[in-house]
Write a structure and sequence with these properties.
The protein is mostly helical. The chain is built from 8 helices and 2 strands, in the order H-H-H-H-H-H-E-E-H-H. A two-stranded antiparallel ribbon has the order 1-2. Helix 3 runs antiparallel to helix 4 and helix 4 packs antiparallel against helix 7. The longest helix is centred in the first third of the chain and has 28 residues. It is elongated. The termini are close together.
Length: 162
């Protein structure tokens, strides 16, 4: 891989991450599919990757460190997606992550009653599928693909520098 290719691949990862975030918001706000808490957590690595790649262009000399950081980000993404997939398939029981909501702004009994009427999306319920795959399954494939690509970039980075 040449340095030009590393730049190309980082731009590709940026585009994929941006597309993932835009798609998630499209499914939520345009199509009306409410995400569960794990779905929301699975968005974090994509936002982080956007930030890391943008910072990378400012500090080009530390590029290998940023690539390593991206590897860790997508390891987290893969683990979170696999855990969510396990819940969807019934391999794991739902944890507190799936049921906890931010209750810090509820002050009155009327607000508490109103909040109890809101339906919480279960982590085991698949509300949207693409070609028969849940979004979590697609996220597993995307995270794994990006992880493999970043690992390849990282391991061949020394050859680029010489």
């Amino acid at each position: 891989m040449s340095n030009l290719n590393v730049t190309f691949y980082l731009k590709l990862i940026f585009f994929i991450s941006f597309l993932a975030i835009i798609s998630a918001y499209y499914f939520e706000y345009i199509l009306g599919h409410k995400p569960c808490n794990l779905c929301l957590i699975e968005r974090i690595p994509y936002v982080l990757s956007l930030v890391v790649i943008l910072i990378n262009y400012k500090f080009k000399k530390k590029q290998k460190n940023f690539i390593l950081l991206l590897i860790f980000i997508f390891i987290f993404s893969l683990i979170a997606s696999l855990y969510h997939f396990g819940i969807e398939q019934g391999f794991f029981q739902e944890s507190l992550i799936c049921t906890v909501k931010d209750q810090s702004n509820i002050l009155s009994k009327d607000e508490i009653l109103k909040e109890l009427q809101n339906i919480t999306v279960s982590c085991k319920d698949v509300t949207f599928r693409v070609l028969g795959f849940s979004l979590t399954t697609i996220n597993i494939f995307v995270s794994l693909l990006l992880l493999i690509l970043l690992t390849k970039i990282f391991t061949s980075y020394e050859k680029i520098e010489k």
